[in-house]
Design a protein that fits this description.
single chain; 180 residues; alpha+beta; Alpha-Beta Plaits; 2 domains; three-stranded antiparallel β-sheet; 13 strands
Length: 180
């Protein structure tokens, strides 16, 4: 699927989502937002004036108190989203990129043929198995989604099913699993 497809699902079927930002001191903060509208590459939401999220964004957009009298619609024009379908086993997982500054769509093929996860800067994410893999299968036994393909060496993590829990990396006695 493409970004516009995930945005359509968020708007028409899910409606609310969690968005992660940072506060004025650089600490991570999550907020639940109601998605009002989407276009090809961004989403729009409103938030109540009494909420901290509103105050944080209004202070950035409208620094003068008198300019904050009306409720504003906010646009998320750049970022990375993750889509999980937890109704199937193994889960289905994909990332998508919001905004025109993204360096390509989120899911692209990696060096071992696995689908890679990319953030808004185009950097790969998730876990991958390096050439240090000796085929011991310990990582496979620790994977809750059973999403490690053992048909090739090094083994390949099927990113579309991976939870990014890190169990495989912790279990590998050879240090063959790395986080991007």
């Amino acid at each position: 699927m493409e970004t516009k497809d995930y945005l359509r699902i968020l708007r028409e079927e899910i409606h609310s989502t969690v968005i992660a930002t940072v506060d004025g001191e650089g600490h991570p903060v999550t907020r639940v937002i109601y998605i009002m509208l989407t276009d090809e590459n961004s989403l729009y939401f409103i938030t109540a004036k009494g909420k901290a999220f509103y105050a944080q964004h209004m202070a950035e957009i409208y620094p003068q108190e008198e300019s904050r009298t009306a409720l504003e619609v906010f646009q998320v024009a750049e970022g990375t989203g993750e889509f999980f379908d937890l109704s199937v086993k193994p889960i289905f997982r994909d990332t998508f990129v919001l905004g025109v500054s993204a360096k390509g769509e989120a899911g692209q093929m990696g060096q071992n043929g696995e689908k890679t996860q990319r953030n808004a800067s185009g950097q790969q994410g998730g876990y991958f198995i390096t050439d240090r893999c000796r085929g011991c299968r310990i990582c496979c036994s620790k994977c809750p989604q059973k999403c490690i393909d053992m048909s090739a060496k090094p083994f390949v993590i099927q990113q579309e099913h991976c939870l990014h829990c890190g169990n495989c990396m912790e279990a590998c006695p050879f240090g063959a699993v790395e986080r991007r």
